[in-house]
Amino acid sequence: MTLPIRVRTLKIDDRDVSAREDETILEVARENGIDIPSLCYLEGLSAVGGCRLCLVDVRGVPRPVPACVTRVEEGMQITTNSERIVKYRRMNLELLFTEGNHICAVCVSNGRCELQGLAQSFGMTHVHFPYLYPQLKVDASHERYVIDHNRCVLCMRCVRVCDEIEGAHTWDVMGRGIEAQVITDLNQPWGTSDTCTSCGKCVHVCPTGALFEKGKSVAEMLKKRQFLPYLKLMREEHV
């Protein structure tokens, strides 16, 4: 017997809203037209709370919480745009820039990059932390696609879409902290992978220019993600 899903009532930015008990703060906010920025989150994929750009304040909770992985509760009072929250989001965004080599002027995704778009929305013209300038590789061994680790923000969208949607699990994460990076198979060149189906889903969900198709211009780098909510719906109907 399936138990009915209960409805929760809560406040977001002093607005009374209702939600299903299985929904997250981010989902409810977006359903009600309340903007909460995010980078690692993508509808149709599981949420991991990795980028910490969707932080919000919840009354009674001492620390900000990631909206994408925090379930709603009855009577919650949530603030999405306080001075403290904006400061934390800006800091996290700056750290993403300093930990990689993001040079928008020469990037294939210039004008089509979610990281760049977030920086523009925050009015970010510089960062307050020293750049690390890591020496990261570019893997162009695949016949169609390239991965530039210099532009990767470890959102793990490629890992999740390859596992949850395609079912190949070609991508994974190796290392910890600042040493972490996405890899194919057991850290083998992408072009030698025995599991990659060359479907391109990982390329289309990448929020930056880390994954791109060879020979594509900036105007052609518009990502196609319409398949994700549809496939998620089909999967849920067959569970």
Instruction: Count the DSSP helices.
Output: 6
Number of strands: 10
Query: What is the alpha-carbon Rg in Å?
Result: 19 Å
The outline comes out as globular
| Largest sheet strand order | 2-1-5-3-4
DSSP strand content: 15-25%
Order of helices and strands: EEHEEEHHEEHEEHEH
CATH first level of the largest domain: which class? Alpha Beta
Q: What is the CATH topology descriptor of the largest domain?
A: Alpha-Beta Plaits
Count of discrete domains:
2
Low-confidence stretches: none
Largest sheet: 5 strands, mixed
What is the mean predicted local confidence, pLDDT?
A: 91
Oligomer category: single chain
Distance between the termini: 15 Å
- Give me the CATH architecture of the largest domain, please: 2-Layer Sandwich
What do these coordinates show?
The strands form 3 sheets. The protein has a 5-stranded mixed sheet, sandwiched between helices. The protein has a 3-stranded antiparallel sheet with strand order 6-7-10. Strand 6 and strand 7 form a beta hairpin. The protein has 2 domains: 75 residues, Ubiquitin-like (UB roll) (Roll), CATH 3.10.20.740; 133 residues, Alpha-Beta Plaits (2-Layer Sandwich). It starts with 6 loop residues before the first strand and ends with a helix. The radius of gyration is 19 Å and the shape is globular. By secondary structure, the chain is an alpha+beta fold. It contains 6 helices and 10 strands; from the N terminus they run ββαβββααββαββαβα. It is 24% helix and 16% strand.
